[in-house]
Design a protein that fits this description.
The protein is of the alpha+beta class and about 130 residues long. It has one domain. It has helices at about 25-30, 30-50; strands at about 1-5, 10-15, 20-25, 60, 65, 75, 80-90, 95-105, 110-120. A 4-stranded antiparallel β-sheet has the order 1-9-8-7, with helices on one face. A 3-stranded antiparallel β-sheet has the order 4-5-6, with no helix packed on it. The longest helix is centred in the first third of the chain and has 17 residues, at about 30-50.
Length: about 130
């Protein structure tokens, strides 16, 4: 199973009567880059403590990810997106998920948008 998501920052507008007070982009305040690095670091730290965590099986060349099987696929992203990295995470002991992240940079070192590609398979112990 493969999943591909494009996420953009969420914007919220606040109103007082008929007058707009301000527009707030929460994720740019936090910083996409800081948030992404934090999430990756936590996940990688969890995986490093688990013996036998499988290695990433898909290959990545520039903006293209190649999956030879399960499913066989070649996904190519726009040149504006840069490959950040990949990892394998265990999903509650039932399945493994191989995750890859492609990021389009925004102004000021933040991420404007990203593709999160995830390949999942059940573990043999999941009956």
């Amino acid at each position: 199973m493969a999943y591909c998501h494009l996420t953009r920052p969420s914007k919220h507008r606040f109103w007082a009567g008929k007058r707009e007070l301000r527009e707030v982009n929460y994720l740019s305040k936090i910083g996409w880059t800081v948030l992404s690095l934090l999430l990756c670091a936590v996940t990688l730290a969890q995986n490093s403590a688990i013996p036998g965590t499988p290695a990433v099986q898909r290959r990545v060349q520039d903006q293209t990810i190649v999956s030879e099987e399960l499913p066989a696929a070649v996904l190519t992203f726009d040149k504006a997106f840069r490959y950040v990295g990949g990892q394998v995470v265990n999903l509650y002991g039932n399945a493994d998920a191989e995750q890859h992240l492609f990021v389009k940079s925004g102004g000021g070192g933040s991420a404007e948008s990203f593709y999160w590609v995830q390949f999942e398979h059940f573990l043999p112990s999941n009956t």
